[in-house]
Specification:
The chain is an all-alpha fold. It has 2 helices and no strands. Helix 1 runs antiparallel to helix 2. It is rod-shaped.
């Protein structure tokens, strides 16, 4: 075996654990990101669905101004929650 071949073998022995560790870190980071993304998307979908159901209910019957305003505050809270989750998902 030549010196150059020995250097290559030693280099691969040295670099292999480093690459393995970097790959592991990348996979864990990606899995964590995807989990958070899925959680945020689920919350967004749930909140939007709930708001749509409330709007549909309001349209289908007469409601007092107080009831509407109480729902309006809840919608604003939900919308802020959705906006917050979207900012997290988009990285802003």
């Amino acid at each position: 075996m030549t010196n150059e071949e020995r250097l290559q073998v030693n280099f691969y022995k040295f670099i292999q654990p480093i690459l393995s560790s970097l790959t592991t870190v990348a996979v864990i980071t990606l899995a964590t990101f995807l989990n958070k993304l899925n959680t945020n998307m689920a919350v967004i979908q749930t909140e939007v669905k709930s708001i749509k159901e409330d709007v549909h209910e309001m349209r289908s019957k007469y409601v007092s101004k107080d009831v509407f305003q109480s729902h309006e505050r809840e919608w604003e809270r939900r919308i802020m929650n959705v906006e917050s989750r979207i900012r997290v998902v988009s990285g802003n």
